[in-house]
Q: What sequence folds into this?
């Protein structure tokens, strides 16, 4: 018997521990070289891990276990071949010079790619939460891969079937007595990403002199511009002109004018690091938690490039396929709680950055315009900042500058 040990590989700088989020091959199953056998969840991303040798897989760790980098999580018995029997050799030629019957070793051959029927990390978690197996979901992704949308469709179909069954049962069953109300509780282990988010939010609250300033912006001109040029924009660039690229560009312009808001305090606590570029982290909500991958050099990108970058990061984030490199960096953050209906909030700084802009829902409100009351699409803006590096006057000035650019987008387009 020849057994090799599989250890948790180095996944990224400063990551000392991961969580084994899911096994993709059963304990005792035969695996091919480079076949994906499990997924590790780190502080920043989910990583698929391939088999280092072909043979029989032997689990050492279970799903949900926290494992240190370099620790053994599985073993592979390389003496086992595809049919789970010891390898056989071909008999030599018989003395009569007639070749003996040839013995062949079975090999694992699949007409389908590995992706076929295999869920993405996000889809895998969603399936597990809803008790679905791969044979209950039809994969429509690349090479038959199961996507989050495929799982959601299967859940909806299952829900509709259950609803019909419940309705039929309710016709036969009388109302249950009030003392039969369910008061059960359950305890589930917090995911590594959720634990990391919690830790960093508490750190930001405890380790920074954070406070928030507010303003409001009239989006009349922005909405008129989008309505007038949206069709041509989509025709030329193949993507819609959204609010995020406009807000990102406005913030980038002001950040280049006010480098202090784009700076951060050094690790020694005695220095300030200034950036001659603007990398804006975009808060993206996923089933496993909030991630903030940055769009690099926003100050040098046009609106279509910013929209494409944000869309690409959002798709990867929700599929759980963001790389560690794509998660690193950022000099400023924008979060849009307005998509969920938030009217006002105080966002928490994304350390080690020094400021974060919170966007909110757009509401039609009566406003006094040149002595007349008019209904305008208004949005509250919130800027949370670290008072150790950004003064109150600077934070207010920053918001006012952003407000002016958004209320007169021509100045933003002409870089005035």
A:
């Amino acid at each position: 018997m020849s057994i090799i040990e599989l250890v948790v590989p180095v996944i990224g700088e400063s990551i000392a521990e991961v969580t084994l989020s899911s096994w993709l091959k059963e304990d005792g199953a035969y695996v091919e070289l480079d076949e994906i056998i499990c997924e590790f969840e780190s502080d920043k991303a989910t990583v698929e891990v391939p088999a280092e040798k072909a043979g029989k897989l032997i689990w050492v760790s279970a799903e949900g276990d926290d494992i240190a980098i370099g620790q053994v999580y599985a073993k592979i018995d390389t003496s086992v071949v595809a049919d789970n029997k010891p390898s056989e050799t071909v008999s030599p030629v018989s003395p009569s010079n007639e070749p003996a019957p040839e013995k062949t070793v079975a090999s694992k051959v699949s007409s389908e790619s590995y992706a076929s029927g295999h869920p993405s990390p996000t889809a895998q978690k969603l399936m597990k939460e809803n008790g679905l197996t791969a044979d209950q979901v039809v994969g429509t992704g690349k090479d038959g891969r199961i996507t989050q949308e495929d799982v959601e469709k299967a859940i909806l179909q299952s829900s509709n079937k259950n609803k019909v069954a419940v309705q039929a049962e309710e016709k036969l069953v009388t109302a249950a007595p009030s003392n039969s109300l369910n008061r059960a509780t359950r305890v589930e282990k917090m995911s590594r990403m959720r634990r990391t988010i919690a830790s960093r939010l508490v750190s930001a609250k405890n380790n920074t002199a954070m406070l928030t300033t507010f303003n409001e912006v009239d989006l009349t001109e922005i909405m008129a511009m989008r309505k007038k040029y949206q069709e041509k924009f989509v025709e030329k660039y193949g993507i819609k002109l959204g609010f995020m690229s406009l807000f990102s560009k406005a913030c980038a312009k002001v950040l280049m004018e006010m480098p202090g808001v784009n700076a951060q305090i050094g690790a020694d606590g005695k220095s300030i690091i200034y950036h001659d570029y603007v990398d804006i982290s975009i808060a993206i909500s996923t089933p496993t938690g909030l991630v903030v991958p940055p769009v690099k050099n926003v100050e040098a990108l046009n609106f279509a490039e910013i929209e494409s970058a944000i869309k690409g990061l959002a798709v990867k984030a929700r599929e759980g396929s963001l790389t560690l490199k794509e998660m690193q960096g950022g000099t400023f953050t924008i979060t849009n709680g307005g998509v969920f209906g938030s009217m006002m909030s105080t966002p928490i700084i994304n350390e080690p950055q020094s400021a974060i802009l919170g966007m909110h829902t757009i509401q039609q409100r009566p406003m006094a315009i040149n002595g007349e009351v008019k209904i305008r699409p208004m949005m509250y803006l919130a800027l949370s900042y670290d008072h150790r590096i950004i003064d109150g006057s600077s934070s207010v000035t920053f918001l006012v500058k952003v407000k002016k650019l958004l209320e007169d987008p021509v100045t933003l387009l002409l870089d005035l």
Summary: The first strand starts at residue 3 and ends at 7. Residues 113-170 form a domain with the Dihydrolipoamide Transferase fold (CATH 4.10.320.10). The radius of gyration is 28 Å.
